[in-house]
Input
Amino acid sequence: MASPGRTLYVIRLPMSVMLTSPDIEAPPRSTAPHPMDSSRLLLALTSLVREGVAERGASTEEGVPLGVLRRLLAALHYRDPLTLHHSRRVALIALGIAERLGWEEHELYVLEAAALLHDIGKIGVPDHILYKPARLSPDEADLIGIHHFTGVGLLQACRMDRTTIQIVSDSYAAGTSEHSELHQGARILTVADAFDSMSRDQVYRKRMSREQIFRELIGQSGKRFDRNVVSALQRWVETDGLNVLRDEDCGSSIDAAVPVDSSTVGEAHTLCHVFSYLYLLETLYDGFYILNNDLKHIVWSRGAETLFRRPARDVLGETWSRRSVGWVNPDGKPYIDETCPMQRLLDSPRAGCVNVQLPDEAGKLQTYELLLLPILDDRHKLQGIAHCYRALDESRRRKGEFRELKLAATRDALTSLPNRKELDNFMTKLYGQFAKSEDSAPFSVIFCDIDRFKSVNDAYSHVVGDQVLVDFARILQDEVYSGELVARYGGEEFVVICPETDLEHAERRAERLRRTIAASLFGGDQKLKVTASFGVSQILRGEHVDDVIRRADEALFDAKKGGRNRTARRMPASEAASAAPAAASVPEQSSDFAARITGNNEVTVYLKTAVAADILVYKLSGFIEETKASLGKATKEEVELTIGKSSLFGGWGNTSDRQPIRIQVFFLGEDRSRGAAVRQEMRVVFSAVGKPKSTEQFQMRVSEVLDLFRGYCVAD
Output
């Protein structure tokens, strides 16, 4: 834990980093190179690296070069003050989480530095992307990713603490990798970043309520977010942890109180151009590296890692040699001193361009154009050298064009979702993995179809119909978990592929999608109501991939035939005959969860929440408000609610509001068996009011309400 006598970066830095944006003047020519002046931009980079190396050599107390940290954060503030304030809030939230997880003082310093620097790559992102009032396209997201790793490369060059770099790098991969592969600091950073983002108004959406945020975080726990980290965040929030953010919410007043330092502004201005220049090198060339005046590697790009098959951590600080890069001349022979391009540049520091050959992974020589750039100071003295490699092979050189062609061939033109061909490729690969091992988990297929879509085209025009398809695709993409594939099957039909997901979980997922779609705005018209029907199936041993697709399609037909705006599922006849009928829609069970269905349309569930009793009452009020439930009995031991209204003759209708259900919540006391976290135990009884049409209809309704109840009560 951080001791009271110590101050953290986020407290130390404001007066030295914060600049007043409205008063910033254009930096003088002498301190800011022209944005296209390659030599002076790279010279500024070598200066930053030199400072980082010097600080690391002096063994700073926390292992983080504080001077470099200040300069980078000053540049981030100069680029976008809001991004820096966001980084500071993320740092405070991350520290609160880490303290709840028992992190030690030095670990907290490293985590805080990583949090402050996690968006450092945004220094070079253009405004039209940084402030885009909509979801980023795949290409724009790729650009953000390149800038992120450009920032990581710069942190490596500046000899930033290795753990700090790992946390920053891993934080970008969160949601696409297994949690066990990521540093816990990155998992903390991902949750803290998401919490702050959802708590604020964004250019593309409004801020979310506290209940909505935790419902989202808990809903994606185990996928995008670490469940333990989310629980630690809840404990921190419930103990008034958010009070530490109040000063950050007054960031503009902090900025206004800080005097402007023109030299700091000029340096920040230069660093912004340095980031943009490094991005250009990263995108234009297959790989590049930069040497200082001692010919030691100070920058080693991601492309260089691939080209030479050596990670940056093994190369930085190492002295360059012809043998280390393996240059071969066009005649297939190694260069000798007098003909070596590097020797010619050292003898006469002018830019040069030659063709060299390098061995690929198989040992075959490939030809590259090598651009050698001298880095000169004001006295024309050599301070460093940059080597940039560009493949001359057509397929390598035009990889960007081939990527665009591949996207065009595998994407639906209207929705930008994967098309039928890409769906087939994904399914074939997934089926191959499933069939290879008896221990592999099954996957499930969800077919969905927009209900009565033809009437939308007829009543609103095909332009609106196309927008409905685009909106529908966006909702599916936003709601599915990492690793799942959403594809357009044809017309108004879409498919969701859920790897490592059984039928029960896939059915719940489809129900969640169905409810989200029914509550969403389409085509910008409040009067336009769109619903969808879903069919779900799971792959079984001995089946072909076509079998699960066909069965999901048949289940979709069942949902359509059953009245639309519903979810149906299909199993092979042999499996269906042996399956217990009541088990189909029972919510998942764990050590803290048990459900019992009686023959009287009643379900009993035992839950444990991650919140204390007083907070639980507050969360229940949110559940009552959203579901428009009527409150019956309410005591310290029991709460009774009723959701929905029955029809005139007491039967259940086809919509949720006509499927009334009574919920009785019995508070069983607190459980402290998991340490300091207080967990409230509950017995929850769901019973039908009136007469459901079938047991399956009742079970589906219970599953729907239970999902919502668990989300509000943070229960498992």
In short: The chain has a mean pLDDT of 78. The first strand starts at residue 287 and ends at 292. Residues 36-126+137-249+263-269 form a domain with the Hypothetical protein af1432 fold (CATH 1.10.3210.10). The chain has four domains: 36-126+137-249+263-269, 285-399, 411-579, 594-713.
